[in-house]
Each structure stands twice: as structure tokens, then as C-alpha cells.
Design a protein that fits this description.
Helix 1 crosses helix 6. The protein has six helices and five strands, in the order βαβααβαβαβα. The chain has helices at residues 16-30, 54-57, 66-75, 92-100, 129-139, 166-177; strands spanning 3-8, 34-39, 78-84, 113-119, 146-153. The protein is α/β, with parallel strands linked by helices and 179 residues long. The protein has a single domain, classed as Rossmann fold (3-Layer(aba) Sandwich), CATH 3.40.50. It starts with a strand and ends with a helix.
């Protein structure tokens, strides 16, 4: 049994990427994993200012909601990020969060596998490549961790439209069950 942390980075009501995240959560729970679901909706999150104090203290100088989230990320065995695709890249909220997780770099983090769930209005595998590449850049800074895979759904621009995409929902559920 693994401790799984699923982070939904969309701020949209009726988020398509969050629909995939909820299916992943259901699959992971059905497989017996300990699962925590966190949404960035309503969270206070400042931008990284590049001061690098965190490299010495393993704490960010900002005192906001990322402090608690950083601890959750550090202590999870498996991380799953869910994001909408904006301009062929992860959401700005997700990128800001990854930047703010910089205090984990010198820490004794537990996570080993990291997955991405992504939705986009456009269709095609190439739509998700830059988001995967961006996440891979973050993962590369954590030598004990690796990218585990992507579950995606294109062609879902309108809110709540992923809820009608049975194949994508099954893909997300199966990803969770296989964690």
C-alpha cells in the first residue's frame, strides 16, 4: 500500500482535469492505497522569489498554504498532478506550485513516482508533450524520483465535458488502480 497524494491544480468550477483526478482517486482507493486529494482552489500561494533560503532551511520564506502542502508532498510515496492544458503547457498554478516546492530539493523526500493527468480543448498526443516535459524538468531535480506516466483527455473545452468521456475516465481510474 502506498501513500498517494493527488493535487488538482485547476481553479475552474466543473474542471475537466479534476474529473480525471477524482477517477484516479477512486481507482487508487479501490486498490487499497492511502489517498489524499488536494485542490488548489481557494489556496493562498505566492510566487517563488528565487531567494534560495529554502536550500539552507528546507522552509520557504513565504507563509501561505504551500507550507502545509510541501509537507504533504515530501511525505507521499506517489504524486499525481492534475492540470488543464493552457497554451500547450501546464497551468500557471501548477508551475507556481512546482517552483514553490523548491524546499524539497535538499530534503529526504519519500516520493518515487510522479504521474500527470491532463485535459485540453485540443486533441492529439502532441498537445500534452510540453506539460509532460515541464513536469519532467522538475522531476529531474529529484534523483530518487521518476515520471510514471500520463493519463490525458483532449477535446474537452467546456466545463464538465470530461465527465462524458468514458475512455479517459477509465484511463484515469486504471492509472490510480495500478499505483
Amino acid at each position: 500500500m502506498s501513500k498517494v497524494l493527488i493535487i488538482s491544480t485547476s481553479l475552474r468550477v466543473g474542471s475537466n482535469s479534476e474529473a480525471l483526478a477524482r477517477e484516479c482517486e477512486a481507482g487508487a482507493k479501490a486498490a487499497g492505497h492511502e489517498v489524499e486529494f488536494v485542490s488548489l482552489k481557494g489556496k493562498k500561494m505566492g510566487y517563488c522569489v528565487g531567494c534560495l533560503v529554502c536550500q539552507k532551511t528546507q522552509k520557504c520564506v513565504w507563509k501561505d498554504d504551500v507550507t502545509e502542502l510541501c509537507d504533504k508532498v515530501k511525505n507521499a510515496d506517489v504524486l499525481v498532478f492534475a492540470t488543464p492544458i493552457y497554451y500547450y503547457e501546464m497551468s500557471g498554478q501548477m508551475k507556481t506550485l512546482l517552483d514553490r516546492l523548491n524546499p524539497l530539493y535538499p530534503s529526504d523526500y519519500k516520493f518515487r513516482r510522479i504521474f500527470l493527468l491532463a485535459t485540453a480543448a485540443e486533441e492529439g498526443d502532441e498537445v500534452f508533450e510540453k506539460a509532460v516535459s515541464g513536469l519532467q524538468g522538475w522531476i529531474d531535480c529529484f534523483p530518487k524520483a521518476e515520471f510514471g506516466g500520463l493519463a490525458s483527455c483532449g477535446g474537452v473545452g467546456a466545463a464538465n465535458s470530461a465527465k462524458h468521456e468514458a475512455d479517459a475516465l477509465k484511463q484515469a481510474y486504471d492509472l490510480g488502480a495500478a499505483l
